[in-house]
Specification:
single chain; about 325 residues; alpha+beta; Structural Genomics Hypothetical 15.5 Kd Protein In mrcA-pckA Intergenic Region, Chain A; 9 helices
Amino acid sequence: MKLIIGAASAPASPQAKTVTVDEDSAGQRLDNFLIRHLKGVPKTHVYRIIRSGEVRVNKGRAAADTRVQTGDMVRLPPVRTSEAAALKLERPAPARDFPILYEDEHVLAIDKPAGVAVHGGSGVSFGVIEQMRQARPAAKFLELVHRLDRDTSGILLVAKKRSALTHLQDQFRERETGKTYLALVPGTWPANKKVIDVPLHKYLQADGERRVKVVGKDDPDGMRSITLVKVQRALVGAGASAGPGFSLLEVTIKTGRTHQIRVHLASQGHAIAGDDKYGDFELNKLLNKIGLKRMFLHAWRLRFAHPLSGLEINLESSLPPELADFVEGG
């Protein structure tokens, strides 16, 4: 008997495709637009194909911060996703409601807890926005207006209409909003350090993790970054009377760079307590033992103009219990 074994058919190679930007995506940054369309593709790869020119907008190269507009033709190069990533994406994010500080038909503000990413990506399968969409299935539109680091708690704005998103993001970009954080740093903050005006440069480590560093004012890769610092109170023997004294700072950012507050404060020799990227690792171990198990950075106050009425909205989020308890000495 003759046995004939047929050659297995090779899987079809992924092909480039072109996507037309619709009204709901108009105004989005190109990197965010791609992250939503290339599900399961690591962010590091998304930025790589943008830099290489494989992504095209209306047949031309474009930068990651390019704002796509309705009708734009975006070329998506062929990319492969792992089966594990594909399976993970098939599972919807769990529905979750977050404490609401303000809401109307245009915008809502939530009190984000620490330890929750604002969106999925970079090894995180889902974040605040995906959970909110599951919790509000009738909502036609929910998009993040801005971002907070995963380990930062506090005020986070979400737009409920495309027009509100565009208007609010314009305010953030033009520095027309007021954003003030509470940060705890070891030691006594210098009274003459009220303004930090030092350029920052964002880069990727070998493992793909993003980091930020201060650079000289003449560095071509540096982005001007301005942080205002005010001492709210000095704390002696905070945290069950262990460790050094601390300064509780009110930090207002005039520019919204990645990790801006964390890197600016660390550059002055006063890294944020509990910061696992730019902080004092030995001090963090001690603080963990005496009750501070997260980074002490909280988005405390936010001022913006309402996207429809133009009226000024002022929001405030109280320190969460784990931070308030540490400040008061446990």
